[in-house]
Protein 1
Amino acid sequence: MTLQRIISISRPRFWIYEFGTFAFGAIAAFSSFSNLLNIQTIIFGFYFLIPANILIYGINDIFDYETDKLNPKKVEYEELLEPKDQKKVWWWIILTNFPFIIAALSLETPAMISFFAFIFFASFYSAKPIRAKARPFLDALFSACHYIATGVFGYYLLGGESFPTLGFVAGILWAVAMHAYSAVPDIKADEDAKLQTIATVLREKGTLVLCLMLYGISAYLGSTVLGIGVLMYGLVYISLMIISLKKVGPGGSGLFKIYTYFPYINLVAGAVMTISLLLVHPLISI
């Protein structure tokens, strides 16, 4: 198993998701630039950029083989992990994550708890015995929780106190919508593999309507914490859901092209939100 292959398995186009939520939480809490750029922040920033994604997607590919082999997306858009390579991937997961797990044990309690919450939700989203991704609605919740745990970790790592409740709820709703939307193109493959998800239960239109509602509520709640600019952020996703509803086809096939742009939309929107948060920080004057 080469480094190039393990990097491919870790889905570089999705690296920004975990790193972005970590950075957002850190920027919301930092008290000085030396605090924001210290070695501890850099170490865990690197963790959520690459090793965390090796954990998430390595475990995902190991436990998803029976589903993935029936999914054209794994051949045309991603890579199929064959059973013969699974043991090697386990070793990569252990070796790249273990040092950071040990380091997290020395952190203050809120940061340590949120770090291990990430490990728990990210691992058992795919792994047995919980395997949340095969349990409708629990799949979206586990996926959302590991993203939010990352943001909460960044917040407490930089010395934040009492993470905002409305911000937490807004983040969970946004991440549930993100997961549900990404599950729509997989409906046919999941059904062929007898795997139930939030999207197989609600079907294409039902899932997209739910996503639209969740993005709207999330934007409103987020605006009470971060300001009215968040509503503009929400409108981007509401518009995307409306466009997607017009493209629905059997098994979500009409959505796949839009889905391939989803990481880039998330990247731009997330960058704008993070920069906006940074610019209104008391330590920065413009």
Protein 2
Amino acid sequence: MNITILGIESSCDDTSASVIRNTLMLSNVIAGQAVHEAYGGVVPELASRAHQQNIIPVVTEALKQANVDKSELNAIAFTRGPGLMGSLLVGTSFAKGLAASLGIPMIEVNHLQAHVLAHFVKQTPGQTNQPEFPFLCLLVSGGNSQIIKVNNYDDMQVIGQTIDDAAGEAFDKCAKIMGLPYPGGPIINKLANEGNPDAFAFSKPHIPGYNYSFSGLKTSFLYTLRDKLKEDASFIEKNKKDLCASLQATIINILMHKLAKAAKELNINEIAIAGGVSANTSLRDALHNYAKRYGWKIHIPPLAFTTDNAAMVAITGYYKYQKQEFSPMDAQPFSRTIIK
């Protein structure tokens, strides 16, 4: 029996809809929101309004590209959280209305779990490069930095996470300090490719276990710029590429050090990355280098699956559908949680 799932993602500022039949992706449509660039970050009220404008066209286009009629859907999977409450309410409300009108079940999806399971979305029928259980997944984004031990599709354990800021947040806030536009992470990545990663040294935290911390790094970066600007008002402009390269190298070194520690101590060689920061080219290069050094089998998501997307929601819904894990109609979104 074929299982056809419509996935809806609206946790932040991207409205996305995807249709998956079994594990094969038939469509994955994403509408972004350029309105936030002028404010240097996502404005929740503007995000929820844009979702209301985008969700019907996006879902319609996803069904059209998949060549699937609404009557063929077995269930609707939606992101229940974590995320921005107003944005989540739009996606949740739409999923409820559509599911009720079609008489099919809803499936609630944890946004973080979905990022991990994006590795199991097949873009072609013969695709066989999915991770084998158990594997470690480094989930890095603007709001989360976690090391997750993945025992099965529905069995994940966070063994390490940031105790303050996330890696993506550190990228974006340091970019803002330098006067770079939002989102800063991709711009830092681009400038860093032309800079010297050893030009500047920034503070690295000493946190026990597999946990992360990036607040001290941000403070170190800020103080370095403050002191240098006293000597030369044009310091940032003159050293922008080296600053980006040094900052990026420090963040990646922090991330990879804990990941390697976990892999060694848990004796796991299947390693994956996920989340928005997994699009960073230097992080991907570092993962390849560590794989050669330690004999890891690595799994890097396609760029389309690094940012928020509904294909990861739909594939999570597919696995939950098989276990009949349906959501009640009175389910409410939540803004904060972790994988337990």
Protein 3
Amino acid sequence: MVRITRVHTGGGDAGETSLVDGSRVSKSDDRIEIVGTCDEVNALLGLVLMETSRLPDNHPDGGARTTVRRVKDVCLAALGRMQSELFDLGAELACPPDQIPEYMQLVDQEDSDRLCEEMDAWNEELEPLESFILPTGSGPIAAMHLARTVTRRLERAMVAIKDEMRPLSLQYVNRLSDWIFVLTRWTSARLGEDESLWTPKGKREAGIAEMTRKQNANR
């Protein structure tokens, strides 16, 4: 059991911090950047959880919204588990691969394969993609898109030093971004939200200035 009695130590006042093995590195070190980005993904999933929990369970007339409750059940369970897995991953990423303590809990192949199994289950309900999806939507959907993009940033940072980490960790993060994307689409579909699709250039709205002037004229 972890027991923390004090957070501030002063040890990082000069711009350095410790890896799990006790070695001191600059806070601008590539590995520390990776650990911080993993923490950022975890925090964004916390934002998704908050937005999902805010979805109203009942219709205005008082009747239950069964679909919303089912979305909540799946998202809260999946994202809650994912936050713990990301915490495990962050601890591992704070170690050189030859210095990982034996006691440390690591994401394994079963965890990675589970992401694919869940994506397959969600995809069974979805229509095939026929256009690019723009990263927007209601609270939970927009937050998921942001989490997905930061997960890709985490992956890019890991690739830059991939010889200094377990290949399975990189595989897991690659699948995680796809997992969030499919969960986003599944949540949109279950909630009855239309996905915002990319519009080819010739079909985009171009009369914004004229619209603004008309509004000003009618004030």
Protein 4
Amino acid sequence: MPGSVKHRAMTTSALVLFSGGQDSTTCLAWALARFDRVETVGFDYGQRHRAELEARLRLLAALKTMPHGEKLATDHLLPLDTLKAIGGSALTDSMKIEIGQEGLPTSFVPGRNLMFLTAAAALGYRREIADLVGGMCETDFSGYPDCRHETVQATARALTLGLARLVRIYTPLMWLDKAATWALAEELGGKALVDLIVRETVTCYEGDPTRHDWGSGCGTCPSCALRAAGYQKYRTAI
């Protein structure tokens, strides 16, 4: 509605949804290259393992020593254990990862990205940050509907209306496959960033610490399969 939203000028700060995984680390490097000041936010939603949450702190410490690291500012960790209370997902409960009755993997956590973006936007409201950055992607992904471009931008519109201020959501990986995501990391931070992502990021649904050339993981869950295949394609291309 005209006049109902305050469209503020482009700020020099961004808030990155930072899980400690490959995609969010690449997005964080992307934001550091574009904004003058970058804050990060992670979510403790009752996930079965805490490997990603632990990786976040190691990654932030390392990124501060790399190019643009001086732009890293406050990190936030928000509890969203409502998702654990709702349950029914292989990421919050002990259950097999397979295709469920709705045609989606049982690793789908209903409403997760919607809640993440809402919480991040509320935090950004208090921090005077209108620009959010997330690692959602609908190219190489498990079919989650809350990762789709249409969903993300509809959420940005709803948040803009609901907060009566402009909320922008950037998704640098939306149209990239995993090989291109690895290549983007190299473009942003060279071999040092690629090596850091291999060494420290956690994307495995099981939080398995087994080492591979593409990083740590069980090697069989959908997330590991996407990451490994993307890495091999990326390595073949260079």
